[in-house]
Amino acid sequence: MYYRITGLLLMGALWLAACKKDLGNYDYHAPSEPLVADLNNSTVDAIVGDSLIIRPYVYLEDGDPAKDLSFEWEILVAEEARADHYTGYPLKIVYNLKPMERAAKLTVTDIRNGMKYFYKFKINGGTRFSKGAVVLSNDKGVTRLSFIRPDSTVNADLYHALHNEDLPNNPVQLFAKPLAYQEGSVEDYWVICKDPAKPSVIIDGSTMLRKRYFNEQFFNPPSPLETQAFNGAQGVPTGIINGKLYLSITSTAPFAPDFGKFSSMQIGNYYLAPFYNRYNFFFGFDTIRHGFVTFDNNGNFMGSDYQVVGNAFNPANLGPGQLLFMNPVPSVSYAFYKSTDGNVYEYTFTVDMSNYDLRTIKPTRKRVFAGSALLRPDTRWQRTAVDVFYFTSDDKIYRYNPLNEELKPLDANFGGKKVTMLQLNADGTQLTAGVEGSILTLDVSVGKNGVITNRVDGIPGEPVGIVIRK
């Protein structure tokens, strides 16, 4: 027994010695772990439409991060049950997700040994589009949508930057759809274009991301679908499409998916010019009858079934021609109409809009418009609350006072560029004009004659429409 125990002890000692000798022959180093500073469990702020750049400090003790590490970024889009993936360092994208807090993850892979390291963080997406101006422009037939920030910097062609595609061609109107029953608010932007190959687009007013295409605004979209004008009076959109009046559905709750969608056209033998208004009933101009027509508050076509008081002209039939501009209001209304006799006539009338049962038109005057020679096929018009008109003529803007027929060019000098857009602010003290490449602000307050007070350059193409949000 003694010899057996001694032998076992000797063998154990030899085994331990061998192990000790074997360990001494290895030069072992654990792989260095990359250091990614200030990212794990952090929150990164992002602004929709702006560049998002995440560039954390990365250190690798025994290697070169640029050569030995790869980077994969993952941003969770939970509402669509997907994730956006990007590779490379740093992360540099135009942030185009709806404003909310999102889970994100950076995966760093050590190329030398395949080891992966995970860093979880959050992205808090916001928007800067609640203040500033959205500009629709025509860049040689290509539609551009840009955003002017409060500091006058421009996100040019923002839609393409966010969606990597162009809008439909030939823009005609930028309509700010209000929140339900909140006239003056902005829920969506409708980018209305005349492009037979591609539908117009509806854009979220908070994110500037596409919500849907315009044909999805209908339960059963008409074909063809040619849009002429839209109105947000009373906080609910209505429109003229293919010359017909369309009303939106308001019988559901405002948050319901169908609320605000267009149903079928209001039937009748008429084709409306793109100038109309809504009060207790709809008032427009029928190009078939060459006269003013009405619809009841439910949109039923009533034609020229109204009372006429006065004989200055026949409001039901102005004769063959083209309506150039009309802005029907509860007080005195004006219409400028180009007749086939070659003259442009100025019509003045009042419409009793207080009660549907009292639909009465009172024609008060017809005369040749003093500024007829200055009008162009693409003339833009604006009217103040005190019945002063502004209109464009090539590279100039004119002020017209119908009380004394005074015509006066504004002081603004546009350097020979045609004025392609004109908009008056609510109190009538400021005009916003558009020329190729620029948006300009003109002072037309009392005692001022349209001196330029601000200029923003960098707009791609010729401005067509603008929505200013303060």
Protein architecture, described:
The protein is mainly β and 470 residues long. Helix content is 7%, strand content 43%. The longest helix has 22 residues, at 2-23. It is elongated, with a radius of gyration of 33 Å. The termini are far apart.
Uncertain stretches of 5 or more adjacent residues = 1-23
Q: Please state roughly what percent of the residues sit in beta strands, choosing from under 5%, 5-15%, 15-25%, 25-35%, 35-45% or over 45%.
A: 35-45%
Count of helical stretches: 3
Q: What does the radius of gyration come to?
A: 33 Å
Largest sheet: 5 strands, mixed
| Strand order in the sheet with the most strands | 2-9-8-5-6
Distance between the termini: 101 Å
The average pLDDT score comes to 90
Helix proportion:
under 10%
Secondary structure category: mainly beta
Number of strands: 37
Taken from the alpha-carbon principal axes, the silhouette is elongated
Please describe the topology of this protein:
Elements: H1 2-23, E1 35-36, E2 43-47, E3 51-54, E4 58-59, H2 65-68, E5 69-77, E6 82-87, E7 91-94, E8 101-110, E9 116-126, E10 132-139, E11 142-148, E12 154-155, H3 158-163, E13 171-177, E14 188-193, E15 201-204, E16 210-213, E17 227-231, E18 238-241, E19 244-247, E20 277-278, E21 282-286, E22 291-295, E23 301-303, E24 307-308, E25 321-326, E26 332-339, E27 344-352, E28 360-368, E29 381-383, E30 389-393, E31 396-401, E32 406-409, E33 421-424, E34 430-435, E35 438-443, E36 451-457, E37 462-469
